Amino acid sequence: MSSHVLENSADDLSLVVANMLAPECIQNPYPVYKKLRGQPPVNGLLDYPPGTVPGVDTPFPAWVITRYADVDYVLSNPDIFSSEDPMQANSSAPSLMLVNHDKPRHTELRNLAKMAFTPKRIHDNIVARLRNDVSTIIDHNLGVTIDFMTEVAGVIPAMVMTYLMGLPKEDYKKLVRWANAFMVSSDFTPEERQSCNEELFHYFVAKVGERYHNIEAGNEVTDDLMTAFITAEYEGNGLNKEEVILFCITLVVAGAETTTYFLGNLMGVLLEDNSWFERLKQDRSLIRPFMEESLRRDGPPQRLFRCVTQDCDIGGQQIKSGDWVAFFMAAANHDESVFENPEQFNINRKNANKHFTFGRGIHHCLGAPLARIEGEIMLNMILDKCTGVEGSLLNSSRQSGGLLAYGFSTLPLKLASS
């Protein structure tokens, strides 16, 4: 192949990467991922980590990593690919706990988080309340055309955050807005994003400060996640007040928006093929594989950033220490070399659970079990109360505000009842 052809090919790929932030690519990035997977990583993506503000912060050019093996390499080598994010740290946003830490501090923080974020606290303290509230939400929306993203999917995850941290239930609406702004997906002005970041931070400064005051005064406090973060100890170490605040913020921004998109994407599959509703209604054992295949094919989290700490080779491309990489879990989830016919929705896929939607290794998402519980309860409640889901994906739209998440901005449908 001539050097001229190679040069033109590289130019074409650079143009593809430059256009990844176009609204049409954000709404459906998978054809672009497929094109990029056929080539070594390409440098030049100028995108924004969570919390940063387009139009205010200046992005670093990043190598785009799309193949399954290459994404696995990045996830499996945290010593080479640092999670400490100088761009996010220098922005107006609060730093995220765990997400932006490396070993050994990451190990200490994760052990503390696991002591607070126990299966008992997730399950026993959440499930009954969530079933009751989801039942009420579905009853309220039966038989009328609604925007599912606003009336159902956008409510459940933020409401769960209020349970977990002992916040007033009505505050869920604030949490939705703040999470949307922080995650650089929905359309906000730079001023709105900065304002939301500040509001989110000051909200938890006040709430955590009030909890500390009550504990120190000997007042009775609720046994929730906020209290657990304050009191958790691992090998004699605990969290200081600022770290508790940042953990609460991290949970909200990492859990509220991505789970909202997950719930919406589940319903999108039901509209895509209406035979699924009756199949799931008759055999509830299909719900878990149905959710897992949705997480693989339509997983909301698209990509994360890492800073390279030593020279390395990724997919035949030499990457230098100090370079920035953007690895796309969603692109890896569609890698044909791992998942046959990746665009097809197939709940009999034997390796569906090999998806990277919740990450892998030391940064595997602690909230993954909670997201699955929310999806399972929502689906079961809809299957219990409804005779079908009516609507057309032609009337829906995918969010186009940023490449961080894949999900619906609007999803009109009717929860039919007899």
UniProtKB/TrEMBL annotation:
SUPFAM superfamilies: Cytochrome P450
Coiled coil: none
Top-level division of the source organism's lineage: Bacteria
Entries under Pfam families matching the protein: p450
UniProt KW keywords: Heme, Iron, Metal-binding, Monooxygenase, Oxidoreductase
PROSITE patterns cross-referenced by the UniProt entry: CYTOCHROME_P450 (PS00086)
Sequence similarity: Belongs to the cytochrome P450 family.
Protein name (record): Cytochrome P450
Organism: Zhongshania guokunii
